[in-house]
Amino acid sequence: MNVVEIAVRFTVAWLAVGLGLFVAAGSFRELRPAVAVHGSARRGRAWRPLYAVPFLLALALLGVGVVEAMRAVPW
Question: What pTM did the predictor assign?
Fold first, then answer.
């Protein structure tokens, strides 16, 4: 691997980590809201367990990104 390929692979891996963190944070925020929602305001919201799917996928993307970042750097 040359220097450019290493840099590109490392950058793509850390972009995957950032995307995973972004999606996981949004899903986690919807799973556990800071303010309790009561009554009629809660009726219009989506079904909460559906937010677990993107949260788990984001954690998987985060893990793959970290592993690939470690593999990209020639220690």
Answer: 0.70
